[in-house]
Here is the input.
Amino acid sequence: MPELLAAHRARGSAAGAFTCYGMEGAAGVLRAAERRESAGVILMISPQAYESELGEPLLATLLALGEAAAVPVCVELDHAASPALIERALDGGAGAVMADGSQLPYEENVELARAAVGLAAARGAHVEVELGHVAGDEEVARAAAAGSLTDPAQAADFLARSGAACLAVSIGNVHGHYAAEPELDLALLAAVRAEVDVPLALHGASGLPAPLIRAAIDGGVLKINVNTELRAAALDALAAGLPAARQGLRLLRLGAATCDAVADAVAAKLALFEQLDLGAPT
Ligand code: 13P
Here is the structure.
């Protein structure tokens, strides 16, 4: 993860982090990243997916696909709230974990982050943390309004005490659908950037318009998480392809349609995160 993020920083781009629920989606992410010769992508597993019956095979699949990819790949367990789950993912080979204590009292969030950093350090892995709370549900795309925002001074204390390597900011971004026109507090982002020197992550990028994404990257965001838009693309492709596939019992075609749909959605995001379609950063 540190090398991948450093490569994006050098290019003036941000790394795309995409939630994967299976092999087809992950293959779509990687196809898009390879075609764009990306400086690297992050394949994320949600805690719900990881805790499901197929969680371990999913992690192993993402690791194998990442290993075989022609671009740098890091596999991250997203939004993990327990040290046991974090340890399991690290033992399973995840290169990064997000220790999410954002809904805990501050001292407990610090405690969880410290525990995660200790577990990750022993395995050469990377820990992302969240301060303030990004509202919305990562699994159910309900409309949400901004949660509690990141406090810049507290962010500095949080990182100093936890030793975490990446901070997810809450600056008006939400998971799932935005309840109103999305707005990011760019002054707050600048204030956080001034207080901390670790890479900043922006969750809830589905539905954020291009100028806001660009402003966030210019403001120091180096990792951008996307889930909802990929799920919508995959489900739309499945719905469209289902009648014909059902007729001929062509299961393979549905998998290919999922892969194509995710690849197209990811390619559009990567272009945005590379700022190519918007000109060079100012
Ligand atoms: P969206 O589902 O809003 O794209 O958010 C994804 C995310 O932040 C995962 O951590």
Q: What stands out?
A: The radius of gyration is 18 Å. Strands lie at 15-19, 41-45, 73-80, 96-99, 126-131, 143-144, 166-169, 177-178, 200-202, 221-226. Confidence is low (pLDDT under 50) at residues 278-282.
